[in-house]
Design brief:
Layout: H1 16-22, H2 28-44, H3 50-80, H4 93-125, E1 128-130, H5 138-152, E2 159-161, E3 175-183, E4 194-199, E5 207-209, E6 226-230, H6 231-237, H7 239-242, E7 246-258, H8 272-283, E8 288-294, H9 299-308, E9 316-319, H10 329-332, H11 359-365, E10 368-372, H12 378-389, E11 393-400, H13 408-418, E12 422-427, H14 435-447, E13 451-453, E14 464-472, E15 475-483, E16 497-502
Parallel strand pairs: 1-6, 8-9, 11-12, 12-13
Antiparallel strand pairs: 2-4, 3-4, 3-7, 5-6, 7-8, 10-16, 11-14, 14-15, 15-16
Helix pairs in contact: 2-3, 2-4, 3-4, 12-13
C-alpha cells in the first residue's frame, strides 16, 4: 500500500556523524536493482539451457514492471509532494531517481543486447525464429491478412490525436502503436503530420505461430521447428486499412508503465472492499512513470509521447527488440522444445508422509518440516482436503494472501463449508497486484458459507497459517500448518519456502 505523502518538512543539514552513518547503509531501491541484475546474469550464462535463459530475460522485464509501478512511482510521489525526509542511507528522492535511471537504463541495454546477440540468434540456430512480415511467403502473408480482417480488425480502436481529440488515457502496461499519418490528397508543401494511437489488444495472443511454408523460399535454408510473428507487426503492416484517406508515414511500438500502487486511508474507509475496488479501477490510469518505445522511433514521436505522458527524458527507454520480453514466455512452455529446457524436477515426499491412511494421525505422532520446492507441496493440499472431508473435523481457520487461479485450497474450503464445518478465511485484500483475484476468491467463499475476514485495518496480514479443529474421542485436538510461502501449488514448485505441521499442545 502506498504510504500517504508526509507533509513537507525543512531539511536539516546533515551532521558529520549522520553522513558517516549513511555510508553504512545500502539504498533499498538500488539494492533491489542489483538483485534484478543477478537474475540478468542467469540469462547471460551460456551454460544455462536456452529457454531457461529466455525465461530469465522475461523475469527481468516483469520485475522491472513492478519496480517502476511501485518503487519508482513512490519516489516520484515523494518528489512532487516535497517530502524532505530521507531514508537511513541519506539519499533524497531526486538522488535516488537519478541513480535508478542510470542503473535501469544500463540494465535494459544489457538485457536487449543478450537477446539480440545471444539468445535470439541461438534460438534461431535451434530452429525457433521470430520473423518480420517481409520474411514470410506470399501464402503466409495472405493467411495473416485474412486473420487480421477476421479476428483483429473488429477489436481495434484507432484514435487520432489532434486539437479536437486529446491524447487518450492508455491503460497501464498496455502495448500500443504510434502511427504517423499524412493526408494523401494534400499538397506536399501543406501536408501536416498527424499522430494516431492504436492499442494492441491484450485479449489476443501477442505471439502468433506461422504455418510452415510448403517449401523453403531458399532451398539451402535449414528447416525450422517453429516460427512466430508479433501481433503488433501484423497491425503495423495493415495500419493503412485503419485510416482510409491517409498515408502511413511511420509506425512505432510503445508501452506505458503507470503508478499502480493503492493509496487508501483505511481509517476513513467505511467499506474496505468497496474502497479497494474503486482504487483498482483508478490505478489503471495512474500517472505515467515510464515510457518504453522502439529504438528506431522518429524523435517527433518520442517527444510527442513523452510530453503527452508528462515524463522526463530519463523516463524514456529506447528498446532495440520486442517490447516486454516477458510476453515471449509461451515459447518456453512448449513441450516439443524440451531439449532446450532444464530437466523436469520432481519434488520428494518426506518419509513420514510417503504412506499413510490418515494425515492427522501422522502429524499427531511427530512434527513435520518440509522444504519447498525440494519437498512436495501436495501434502499441504492434502491436509486441507482431508480436513474438508473428515467428519471429525469441526472447524478450519486459514489465512489466504496469494493463491493460484484454480486453487485446490479454496475448493477444499468451499467443500468444507458445504459439509457443515465452521470455516473462516482471512483473505488479505491488500496483497499487492493480487487485490482483484482476492476479491473474487472472497466472494466465492462467502457464497459457499465461509466466514470471510478482509484483513485487519492498519495491518497487512502476510502470515500463512491453517488451523484444523478436530474431535478425537472425548477431546478436541488442534492441527496447525505454518508456512513462509503462499498457499499456491504453482509457486510452491519454484520458490524456496518452509512448511511446518504440528499438533503439539501449547507449552
Amino acid at each position: 500500500m502506498a504510504r500517504r505523502a508526509k507533509k513537507a518538512v525543512s531539511a536539516k543539514p546533515a551532521s558529520v556523524n549522520d553522513a558517516a552513518s549513511a555510508k553504512l547503509f545500502l539504498n533499498r531501491e538500488l539494492s533491489w536493482l542489483e538483485f534484478n541484475s543477478r537474475v540478468l546474469e542467469e540469462a547471460r550464462d551460456q551454460t544455462v539451457p536456452l529457454l531457461e535463459r529466455l525465461k530469465f530475460l522475461s523475469i527481468v522485464a516483469s520485475n522491472l514492471d513492478e519496480f517502476f509501478m511501485v518503487r519508482v512511482a513512490g519516489l516520484k510521489q515523494q518528489l512532487s509532494g516535497n517530502v524532505a525526509e530521507t531514508p537511513p542511507d541519506g539519499m533524497t528522492a531526486s538522488e535516488q531517481l537519478a541513480a535508478i535511471s542510470t542503473r535501469s537504463h544500463a540494465m535494459v541495454v544489457e538485457q536487449y543486447r543478450i537477446w539480440r546477440e545471444d539468445v535470439g540468434p541461438r534460438l534461431e540456430q535451434a530452429g525457433v525464429r521470430m520473423l518480420r512480415f517481409a520474411q514470410l511467403t506470399p501464402e503466409q502473408r495472405a493467411s495473416f491478412v485474412s486473420y487480421f480482417a477476421r479476428e483483429v480488425w473488429p477489436v481495434l480502436t484507432p484514435l487520432a490525436v489532434d486539437p479536437g481529440h486529446p491524447f487518450p488515457i492508455l491503460r497501464n502496461r498496455s502495448l500500443n502503436l504510434a502511427i504517423l499519418l499524412n493526408k494523401e490528397r494534400e499538397k506536399v508543401a501543406r501536408r501536416q503530420t498527424i499522430i494516431a494511437v492504436v492499442q494492441v489488444p491484450s485479449v489476443l495472443a501477442r505471439i502468433m505461430e506461422v504455418t510452415p511454408a510448403a517449401a523453403p523460399a531458399d532451398p539451402a535454408a535449414q528447416p525450422h521447428r517453429l516460427s512466430y510473428v508479433l501481433l503488433e507487426d501484423l497491425i503495423a503492416m495493415q495500419a493503412g486499412e485503419l485510416f482510409p484517406g491517409f498515408r502511413v508515414v511511420g509506425c512505432s511500438a510503445f508501452r506505458v508503465t503507470r503508478n499502480f500502487d493503492l493509496s487508501i486511508d483505511e481509517d476513513e474507509a467505511d467499506d474496505l472492499l468497496k474502497t479497494i475496488q474503486k482504487e483498482l479501477r483508478r490505478r489503471e490510469r495512474g500517472s505515467a512513470v515510464r515510457l518504453e518505445i522502439a529504438h528506431d522511433s522518429p524523435p517527433e514521436v518520442v517527444n510527442f509521447l513523452r510530453t503527452a505522458l508528462r515524463l522526463e527524458n530519463d523516463d524514456v527507454y529506447m528498446v532495440d527488440g520486442p517490447l516486454h520480453l516477458a510476453d515471449l514466455v509461451p515459447i518456453a512452455g512448449r513441450d516439443d522444445l524440451r531439449d532446450l529446457k532444464d530437466e523436469p524436477f520432481s519434488p520428494q515426499i518426506v518419509p513420514p508422509l510417503q504412506e499413510y491412511e490418515d494425515i492427522f494421525r501422522v502429524i499427531a505422532q511427530r512434527d513435520i518440516l518440509l522444504q519447498h520446492p525440494y519437498e512436495s507441496f501436495e501434502d499441504v493440499v492434502e491436509f486441507i482436503s482431508e480436513a474438508a472431508n473428515d467428519p471429525n473435523v469441526l472447524a478450519i481457520k486459514q489465512t489466504l494472501y496469494r493463491t493460484s487461479a484454480d486453487s485446490p485450497i479454496v475448493r477444499s474450503l468451499i467443500r468444507a463449508a458445504e459439509n457443515g464445518k465452521q470455516v473462516t478465511a482471512v483473505v488479505e485484500l491488500k496483497a499487492r497486484f493480487d487485490e482483484a483475484p482476492n476479491i473474487l476468491w472472497a466472494r466465492t467463499l462467502e457464497d459457499a458459507g465461509v466466514h470471510v475476514v478482509y484483513g485487519l485495518i492498519g495491518l497487512k496480514t502476510h502470515c500463512k497459517v491453517a488451523l484444523v479443529v478436530r474431535r478425537e474421542g472425548h477431546h478436541i485436538k488442534r492441527y496447525v500448518h505454518l508456512s513462509t510461502g503462499n498457499y499456491n501449488p504453482s509457486t510452491a514448485r519454484i520458490y524456496g519456502d518452509l512448511s511446518y505441521f504440528t499438533a503439539r499442545d501449547a507449552y
